[in-house]
Structures are given as structure tokens and as C-alpha cells.
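Summary: Need help interpreting a holo structure output

Steps to reproduce:
1. Submit the protein chain below together with the SMILES for glutathione.
2. Request a joint structure prediction with the ligand placed.
3. Inspect the C-alpha cell block that comes back.

Expected: a single structure record containing both the chain and the bound molecule.
Actual: see attached output.

Input attached:
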Amino acid sequence: MITVTAFKWVPPFAQGVVRDLRVRWALEEAGIPYEEKLIGLDDRDTAAYRAIQPWGQVPVIEEDGLTLFETGAILLRIAERSPVLCPADDAGHARMTQWVLAALNSVEPAISALVEIDIFHTDEPWAKERRPGAVAFLKLKLDALAKRLAGREYLEDRFTAGDLMMATVLRNLRHTDLITADPVLGPYLARCEARPAFQKALADQLAAFAAHEPVPEPA
Ligand SMILES: N[C@@H](CCC(=O)N[C@@H](CS)C(=O)NCC(=O)O)C(=O)O
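--- attached output ---
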């Protein structure tokens, strides 16, 4: 049985976008059962956890003695076991890999730069100055993605793990209207999120957080 390591609880701004969602969603699409291994934020810095995830991050999967981190590597490994996530033909497989990596390398960095400004440094003067440039650069990436997706349901002629990764990357902009206001990207993300496997994965991540909500200190 695959074990997925995820956080027990994270602050509300991160709930629903923590990266174990990618792995839960992929496993749901593939119909592969898994067990959660929930860790606290304090566990990130333990020597035992750093030994399996050098940066103290989630997710990690463990199966049959193999421990694996990095959502790109994990997703590709799961995809190869699922015709829902990975086309059977060699070219389709290669293009699925291409889109997983494009989501991570060509789109996510520009989104992360804006998230850094808006969520983590919102009140700092440098962030206010930097924001227009970060948005302009991100829009170049999003416009190119929208051009690719115009007239298509998915990045290729069917859903693949590439769409799964791209959708989870785009979700990090949920604090803006950059995706929802776009006539191509908004419906694309909604289409991906409407998949029952996504809904189940999201509900399971949120259920873990709800079950481990910190008890407020008495006043
Ligand atoms: N490149 C890594 C990034 C993992 C990552 O950023 N995980 C976040 C949660 S979404 C985390 O654990 N953050 C806590 C921390 O960095 O201390 C991957 O894709 O697996």
C-alpha cells in the first residue's frame, strides 16, 4: 500500500493547495488506494524527516521500501501505472511528461513569484514595487498557455497527468482573478477541478486539516 506523507494542519491560506493534493488526485484518478501519514509542521526539521525529504517538505510517498519526494517525480511514477493519466503510446507518454515538466518549470515559477509577494510579503514596500512586473511576466506565461488551450478541452486530445499538474499549479492563483477571469483558463481549470478524483482528493486533504484544527489558547 502506498503511504502519502502530508501535513496534519496548515494555516487557512494554504489549505486546498498543499502539494500532497497532486499525489492524492493522481492516486484517485489511477484507482490506487493509499494511506495518509500525517506529520506536524514541527516534524519538518527532525533529522528523521530530513533524511527522506532534504528540505523538510511534503509530500513524500513510500511503497515497497522506495521513498520518493518531489511531486513531479511522484506524479510521473504514478502516471506510468495508469491509462487515465498516461497515454499508452510512446509519443503520448512523452507529451504527458513534457506537460508535467512545463507546468513545473515554465509556469509555476512565475506563479510562485506572485504568491511570494501577495501572501508572504504583502505589506513590504519592495513587494508593492515588484508586483506589477511580476504580474506582467506571469501574464506572458498565462497568455501563451491560454493560446495553447484555446479550442481544446485539455493540453492534449485527452486528460493526462500534464493537466493534473497544470491545474494544481494554476490553483495557486486562487487569491486573484487571473485564472477565473480568463475565458480559456477559467473553464479549463473548472473542467479539471470538476473531475470526481479531484473532488475526492481535495475533500480528503481538507478533512485531515479539519480533524487537526489547533485548539485556541485560553484568553
Ligand atoms: N518541489 C517540491 C515542493 C514541495 C513544497 O513546496 N511543499 C510545501 C507544501 S506545498 C511544504 O512542504 N512547505 C513547507 C516548508 O517548505 O517548510 C515538490 O513539488 O514536491
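--- end attachment ---

Reviewer comment: The beta strands are 2-7, 34-39, 60-63, 66-69. The chain has two domains: 2-83+198-211, 90-195.
Status: needs-info
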